[in-house]
Structures are given as C-alpha cells and as structure tokens.
Write a structure and sequence with these properties.
Layout (H helix, E strand, L loop, with lengths): L23 E5 L28 H13 L4 E5 L9 H9 L6 E6 L4 H11 L3 E5 L5 H8 L4 H13 L5 E6 L9 H10 L2 E6 L18 H9 L4 E5 L8 E5 L5 E5 L12 E4 L4 E3 L8 E2 H6 L4 H13 L21 H4 L2
Parallel strand pairs: 1-2, 1-10, 2-3, 3-4, 4-5, 5-6, 6-9
Antiparallel strand pairs: 7-8, 8-9, 10-11, 11-12
Helix pairs in contact: 1-2, 2-3, 3-5
Length: 341
Amino acid sequence: MNVTRGEDDRPGLLVDRFGRVVRSLRLSVTDRCNLRCQYCMPEGEIPWFPKERILTFEEIERVARHLALLGVAEIRLTGGEPLLRRDLPVLVRLLSRIEGIEDLAVTTNGLLLEEMAGPLLRAGVRRFNVHIDSLDPASFAALSRRNGLPRVLAGLSELERLGAIPVKINVVLVRGVNDDQIERFVDLALRRPYQVRFIELMPLGGGEPFEMDRLVPGREVKRRIESMKPLLPIGRDRPSAPANVYRLADGLGDIGFINPVTEPFCGDCDRIRLTADGKIRNCLFARAETDIAALLRDGSPDESISAALRAAVAAKGAGGCLDLHQFYRDRLPRKMWQIGG
C-alpha cells in the first residue's frame, strides 16, 4: 500500500502505523435523515439514537479542540442529514473559532438548504457538498422514497446567489436505477458552476442488498462522458482528496470520480470520523470504535482524551476499501447514517 510519509511523520500529530497523518474530521451531528435512499436506509421504522446519547455542542467542541491541537485542520459536518440538527449554525460558530481549524464544510441532501445556507455561511461554513442522485423528479422520488427535487434545486440556486461556489454535487449511481442520469448531470455541469462527482456504490447502507452488478464503475462513467464531451484532467485537490477531477471543455463546471471500490485510495486517507453518539472511527468499514463520549462524560482529564485519540489512530488498519469483498451490509455493526459520510 502506498502511503503518505515524510515531513509530517513527527511527534505532535495523529499518525497511524502506515505513516498517514490525520488532518480531516468527518463529524456526524445526527443519525436522523429526512430521506430514505434505497441504498442507504430501510423504508420502515429506524431505531434512531436516543436524544441523551447524542453529543452536545459543548462536547463536540471539546473533541474538536483536542483534534485541532493534534493537527486536524478540516471539519466536514455530516449526518444522517446534518441540517436537521437544531441550531446547527451555533455549532458552526463554535467550531470556526477553534485555532487551527482552517476549513468548515457541510455535506447535505439539500432539502433544507434554501433556508439554512445563509445562516451557515455567516456562521463560518466555507463549502457545501449537496447529494443528488437524479435530476428527474420521479426518479428522485423513487430513489429517495421522498419527493423533494425542487427544494434541492432551490437550495443550489440559493448557494449560487450567495456566492458559495463552486458547489460539489455527489451522485451515487446504481445500475438500472439512475445510470440514465449521467448525461443530465454532465449538462448541469456545463451550464452551472458545479463540480459533479460520480461516486461508486458501496455496501454501507441499510436499504436494498448490495450487489456488485449494481455498481457502475467510474471508468465506465468516464468513457460515457468522453463520448459526449472532452475531459481535461485536473487531478486531485490534494493527495488525500478522494475525487479525481476533470474540467469539461467549454463548461462552467467540473466532473469528478470517486471510485473506492474499483480504485481504492485508502493509502492516502487523512480522515477520522466522530459519530453523533461520540465514537471515533478510523474508517467507514472499521469494526472497532473508541468511545470518546464515555471519557467526556465521566470527568476524564484532557490528557486521557488526547491519549485515546492517539491510540485510536495508531490502531488504524490498511483500509476497508482495499478489501471490499470481505465487507457485507449484514455484517457491519453500523450503517452509513449512523457513521457519517
């Protein structure tokens, strides 16, 4: 496995046994969601975390401060659907004031974005990723089991109006379900200042069973797009960025490919995850977790929390995407909405 080593492999930072340096936190603020996407969540009743189990803003801020002291510079707020968390701009303001945190981003399904974009930007959010799997209302409703495409598109328009561009749009393709939408998303990137990112389907949800024949490989999507429009390679924003990005000739936007199944990028991973109920996870596919919430709530000193964070990262494995065939949805202890993207 190729890993990132060198000048950052030094004391004071969160470095795993493969030499990867943790610089980015995926922070889940809730497990709840207002969609029920087929590949992510079951259609029926869902056992949500009880309210008392969810980290408070003060607890989240304390963990974030420890991580910032250990070299984490980027925080991405996720869920579930993060915009469902009450008073989210208050948390954003707390996090934006932490010394060392240079970037705050949000990944959202966009249903509440039109009304929340302004308050979040004023509080300190710098970037938005908006998840949309179809630009056809009927297909959108079938995939998400909810109507809502007009609201999502209104949220995108609000981001443009507020100058929060470029916007990244995440699209998970499912063969036979929404792979007929590729051309429409390319057209959107031609017309709007968006980076449309096609993401390979992974076995992480609690919806329909994961089947390899439903996965649409990124290289197949790239070939289809190149038959329509030339793609000019840009590369990755940084070595640890998951998306390989291409400029659309004569277009306002870009196209990105995130291929964790067919082209794993675990060797450059710089991420750590904090679940809404206070567990540190090194990987979406991790079997083990570190219970930071227990330390926060039993009066443990700062030194114990920092030590637990270091120990968690030190135990990080090579990466789940490197051996995906061993991971199946019914064997994972947590589902995607309980982990945070």
